[in-house]
Fold:
Amino acid sequence: MISRLALTPGEPAGIGPDLCIMLAQRPYPETEIVVVADPFLLQQRAERLGLALELLPFDNKQPATPLPPGQLRFLPVALENEVTCGQLNPANADYVLETLKIATEGCIKGDFDGMVTGPVHKGVINDAGLSFTGHTEYLSALCDNAYPVMMLATPDLRVALVTTHLPLAEVSQAITKQRLRQVASTLHQDLQQQFGIQQPRIMVCGLNPHAGEQGYLGREEIDIIQPVLAELNSTGMQLIGPLPADTLFTPIHLQQADAVLAMYHDQGLPVLKHLGFGNAVNITLGLPIVRTSVDHGTALPLAGTNQIDLGSLKYAVKVAETMARSRHRASPD
Structure:
């Protein structure tokens, strides 16, 4: 199976366009990569980087065909204003969202087997008067408000989150039985369908220190987490916990886990990013499409300098390929 992936560069003044051009210098014999972007931006940035780039228009009526290094397919989206490396411009915020919309709709229609997203700058999008809290929420809205689950992964660790970008003071109230049940079920199902793991073993963090110390340090484990895990395990899942987060992230536990389910953002992601920053990927589970992303930001000062690392984007493409093929094998068609 030859996969076809849409690639959105993200913020045009950042390193996203550079990453796309650098990626095009590598062979991908089993995947056709289509960049959804302004072709003039890509050509200008390639010239600045001193890298060869031949742009070929995308035709969804043609079968997916991998390209040799130095060539790149593109689906054009016009910029509103000229781009200067490292300088944000709210006038180009609509362009960023349009690339995401086109790539997502292409996945829904079946033109693409999945999409990989470069880094966006939330602040400049909101400065333009557009409501945008992040890729995950935006893609969910485009996918009929599917329930998304955020998971980051390195080659040695996967961490999914029950809550994502919330103030810490709001986390406890957000961890409800319904939410935990939905997140855990989605994680279990997508590990099966998109990663080919028949019986996923999921280690689940407690919310409180020492997983609540039998209620002396908080009752969320007793009142919410334990009952939901017992309910889901009775259906055949393997959810182990709740475990104290300070000991869960140790080799003796992780070597038995296909994934870790953390209760909040900074409970699980610091460990993962320490382990694999620059070679990690952000994955959105729970969508009807495959979506992966780099694990870093726009790095505005490095745009156009040729001093960036391709590691996270390479891994994001690799994981998207794996997910697309697993989903294809799991499809009843």
